[in-house]
Design brief:
Elements lengths: L1 H20 L7 E5 L6 H13 L3 E6 L6 H7 L4 E4 L3 H9 L2 E4 L13 E3 L23 E3 L3 H10 L7 E2 L15 H6 L5 E5 L25 H10 L2 E5 L15 E2 L2 H7 L3 H7 L3 E3 L4 H5 L6 E3 L23 E2 L8 H5 L3 H11 L7 H12 L6
Helix pairs in contact: 2-13
Length: 374
Amino acid sequence: MRDVAVSIVLTLLRVGLRVLERVVPQTRSVVLSAYPETEGNGVEVARALVDRYAGRVVWLRDGGPVPPEVQALAARGLVLVPKASPAGLWAYLRAEAVLFTHGLYGSPRLRKPVVNIWHGDGPKGIAPSKDAGRLIESTYFVGSTPLFSHHQAATFGVPAERVLLTGNPRTDQLWRPAGADRLAALGITQEFVVWMPTFRTARAVGAMRAGGPVTEDRAGLAELAAGLRAQGRQLVVKPHPMDADRRAWPGAVTLDEGDLSAAGVTLYELLGASSGLVTDYSSVWVDYLLTDRPIAFLVHDRDTYDRPLHPADVLDWVPGEVVDLDREPFARFLADPDAGLRREVATRIGLNRSATAADDLVTALVKLGVLESA
């Protein structure tokens, strides 16, 4: 019943907004929406727009404490408006362009440009749910690799010529790594590796769908943690923000968005300070390739995972150890013989190696006429 009610409300909202957009005059302004609010693609695009855009930059909020990075931008002119408010809808209708990471107000098809900055390139299928979820209407799609970005854009009905391969803006933060004092506030006092699995079962967030059953499988983590301890390194666990599973592991530092925000550290500043990454189907490994540091793939449900992968054989050529629990798990990762493989895979997927992705995106939008001036 909840999904049916959400679908009805979203349908009415989409129809109403399409009608209103035709009569409400536009102003020199843009609106941005990101989930979570700390999502680096949203924050870094907001930063670039505040620096360069001549109009009003409106950040639509879901509520709760304002993250430090958003507060800092608000002090420089970013306008914070509650998303679920008449002011938020008015800003949306009057904007000359809309940018978001997960859709906005039911994502109706608008006459104004809608830029889907999304939240990463990767092999995981992103087809929307047939229940409360739906196609996220987009004029442009932002990504960092021809292989993954074009496939994702096609899911949203965005043609190849409107895919902007300027890089994921959040990767700009990799080059601003968190310092020792801020890491210590998180409980990180040594060199460290981050474990970032994708979610299997989603927490209820708006109209987003749920996946399969929560997994409690931690096979391989004991070997990883022991290997890191032997090298004087820590294990840091960062669950996906939508994950129903906390992913905690004894002796590891487990961090969520609230922990990072309290310490004034963004996720990609954390990754920029790390010495390695363990993940699975998550898009984070594509971004992390930019650092040229070791990556391992801990995949316990390769045969039962409920989303398709693109390409289907991606786990056969990923840029690091695919952990085999029967054969010295993580030995290759801890030794790191894969620098050549990482470079080979970066070339294979066509990774954009820019360190100024957010600024590059704004430049592209100006050239396309999406933004009137910057």
